[in-house]
Each structure stands twice: as C-alpha cells, then as structure tokens.
Specification:
Elements (H helix, E strand, L loop, with lengths): L7 H7 L7 H8 L3 E5 L3 H9 L4 E4 L3 H4 L11 H14 L4 E5 L9 H13 L5 E3 L5 H11 L4 E6 L5 H4 L9 H16 L4 E5 L3 H10 L4 E4 L7 E4 L1 H5 L16 H17 L14 H10 L7
Parallel strand pairs: 1-2, 1-8, 2-3, 3-4, 4-5, 5-6, 6-7, 7-8
Helix pairs in contact: 3-5, 6-7, 7-9, 9-10
Bound molecules: 3-methyl-2-oxobutanoic acid.
Amino acid sequence: MSERPKPQRYASWTAGKLPLPELSEMKRRGEKIVMVTAYDAPSGRLADAAGVDLVLVGDSSGMVVHGRESTVAVSLDEIVFMTQWVTRGAKRPLVVADMPFGSYEVSDEQAVQNAVRLVKEGGADAVKLERGGTSVSRARAIVSAGVPVMGHVGLTPQTATVLGGFKAQGRTAERAGALVDEALALEAAGCFAVVLEAVPAQVARMVTEGLGVPTIGIGAGADCDGQVLVWHDMLGFYEGHAPRFVKRYADLGELITEALERFADDVRRSAFPEPQHTYAMPEDELAALEALRPSPRRR
Ligand code: KIV
C-alpha cells in the first residue's frame, strides 16, 4: 500500500521548524542549545542562517535598540511588532517573545491575554516571563491556554530595582536555595526551559541537574544546557556598560563607523556615485528632451 501524502496544510506549517520537544531531547543527549536575541527581520534571518536554535525577541531591545536606561518601559506593542519582523526572517529557530514588564503582573487572565496576542499577532512560538513568585501561577495559566512558556530567574532586569541593581544573584546559601526552588516551581508549572541570568556557576549546575527541562544560561557558567547572548552585546554594537559575562564575537560598531566615514568622505570629494551607480538616458531620447527644453546653460 502506498504511503498517504501528509495533508498540505499541516506539512507546510511545520516545515523546517525546530520541534519544541527536541529541546528536552537535546538536554538528554548533552547537546548544547544556542539562543540569541534578535529584533528585526535581518537579524532573525542571520540567526537562522547561523543555525541558532532559539531566537529571543527580548525586552533588552529597550536598552540596546531604543536607547533606554532599562527594560521597564518596553511595551507589549513594541514586542508584538518586533516579533512580527523577527518571524519573517527566522524560520527554523523557535521564536520566543519576551513578555514586557506590566504585561503579566496584574492577573493570570491578563497574562494569558497578552501571551495569546504575542502568538496570534506576533507569530511567536513561545513566550518568556521573569521571576518566580506570582510568575509561577502566570506561567501555569499561559501553558494551560496552549502557549509554551520559558521561565527566567536570577537577575531579572524588569525588577532590578528590587534586587538592588544589575548584579549577580543567589550568592548566599539562602538566596541560592530560593533560586533553585523558583526554577523547580517554574518547571512544575509547565515551563519548557528556564533562563538563569547572572548566578554563580555552582548554583546554575545544581539547577541544571535538578530540572528535566533545559536551562539556558547568561552569566551562569558553562554547565547550563544552553547559552544566550544579546545581539548587540556579542556583535559589538552596544556602547553602554557590557556585563562581565558578555563575549564579543565581532566589533560591528567599529566596522559600521568606518564604512560610514568612507561614505561621507566619498560624498564630500564627489567620488560617489560613480558611473556604475548611475542611470543613463538613451542618446536619442536625451536629444529629444533637449529639443523640447533646451538646457538653461545653453540657452
Ligand atoms: O531581554 C533579553 O534579552 C533577555 C535575555 C538577557 C535573556 O531576557
């Protein structure tokens, strides 16, 4: 008997996308998971071309793209727009949209409504929210509504003021124990992965060993199941303070400045545009035009 072809609608929807359960399989196999932030279609496309597994439309955009001092003022609309752009570029990676501050704090209902918006309007595959505490209940509600959720504990930039600033978390036995409990609670609520930001490597290892779902580290040592970096930090675009956990893989800021300086110099010396950058008119059409409208200089 010949194999029945898959219904086209289903086949095209899933084509090429990394299946979400594969992340836990990668953890089981000891294969590292790669995540990077992206905020527009070109960065989504480049992350996809580089074979990245997860693309995060992070509220770090508030600082690295929009020049704010923190992530707190980022709006849900901003994340929806950026997620639309990123999903046009990133096809294979799972696209995770950050739930910005204020979009899930009020109630489980508010959290579900806004998570659904990120999926329906933005095209996100999953959402991420910060902290344990009430966020555990929010995560459970969003997962029950059918939207995959990624947790985020340790340094949670949306509530950095409460934490005493942008600094490492979980450095005492008591705080580390609380952090492990938060991660376990988020897993129990149904999160498919948990980001660990700026926590001691030993604590991150303990969480990673204790969870069945993957941990994604940023400033959390080498034992996490995956790593994430912010696009502008790792590629050398961001002029603000870079945390010690950032590794710069390129200095695109310098490359771009140098290219712009050469452009400015060419324009000022009339060295750009050259003939190959210029459109020409057929000679006979030019003659006809000049007959109609003699050049003012020749009149
Ligand atoms: O917004 C963001 O980019 C993040 C990462 C630092 C994990 O939350």
